[in-house]
Prior knowledge:
The chain is of the alpha/beta class and 383 residues long. It has 11 helices and 17 strands. The chain has 2 domains: 3-18 and 254-380, Lyase, Ornithine Decarboxylase, Chain A, domain 1 (Beta Barrel), CATH 2.40.37.10; 38-248, Alpha-Beta Barrel (TIM Barrel), CATH 3.20.20.10. α3 runs parallel beside α4 (97-103) and α7 packs parallel to α8 (227-240). The protein is elongated. Bound molecules: pyridoxal-5'-phosphate.
Amino acid sequence: MKDSIFHTPDLLTPAYVYDQVSIVNVLDKLVSLKEKTACLPLYSIKSANMVGLLEVIKPYVSGFSCSSLFEAQLAAEVLGEGQTIHITTPGYRPDEWDNIIQLCDFVTLNSTNQWQSMAKKIGAYASCGIRINPELSFVNDERYDPCRPDSKLGMTSEQLAVANSKQELNWESIEGVHIHNNCESTHYGELKQSVEKVMSGLSEFNPKLKWINLGGGYLLNDKTDLTPIEDTVKWLQDEFNVDVYIEPGKAITNGAGYLVSTVIDLIESKNKIIAVLDTTINHLPEVFEYQYQPNVMATSDKGKYEYRLVGCSCLSGDLFGDYYFDKQIEIGSRVVFGNIGAYMQVKANMFNGINLPATYILGREESLELIKQNDYESFRSRV
Ligand SMILES: Cc1ncc(COP(=O)(O)O)c(C=O)c1O
């Protein structure tokens, strides 16, 4: 892809741009995995959910996985015949329950209470699963570790044993198991280890499973060794005769996403030249949340011109960091952030009333298709 595409004057900024070629490249890897193992790939729409983007992903997956009624409604709007909707959340609400089970094909419950209040109704509409917490932590930051101590995500072996002894779970009607316990990992051996632990723990209950969902939390690049996941899927199919779903999010969208912004002011301070952008950290909220410095195109350690890139909100900490550019930048220059396709657009907010970025799909022929534009109404409808 040529950088010049981000400098076309017709491109409104700030803008999220999703590169279709990059998305399809990852999806092709998932399709190969499916051809090799007969696993069923889903897309976890929480990572990025613009409808035009979902349309790009849809032909390559068996369905979408969701975390709420609204996501399920969106999935139902976009998906076609034969594609399935999967849901799991610690937060099912009684007033949404009827709609959820009518929309979703696979509903995974997260706790004994959820089971007792909701399970009876599911059978008539959807296949019912239970989320198991493998109690194996691979994530250093507890905020992103589904297996942190006293986690709310999935039932632990102890909770399962208690529920079983009190006959609070009916294993006859549990058709599936859901596992998700990683974040940005490239080591599928961790998945294998988790699955083996969970399946060995479940054997005492003698479940009659039809499916297992292995969650997301793993990246997929050219160097990723897929042997452990291939082996795991085959083992699950051979040993337990189950359908195996996987539901990546970030692996599909992150590398494909760019945020294009324009420099709207340059301020010379004592030590720095500060470039004020027409975007804000609120358009890349995970940068602030994780406190990391995002990638910026046309910068390197060897660049001659140093600028502090800042967002245009009133927050003094609304800054992206200090960068060395190869060329001088001016008011009107474009600044492009890379690797921001996951968990940014979905978490972006309108703090200070600053408009949200437009969204484009960068097509195969380097064409830019505007799929979403926001205006005062977007702001007004939230207040
Ligand atoms: C249950 C579940 N499935 C799938 C995903 C997608 O994970 P990722 O985007 O890291 O692949 C998540 C992310 O939080 C999740 O909680």
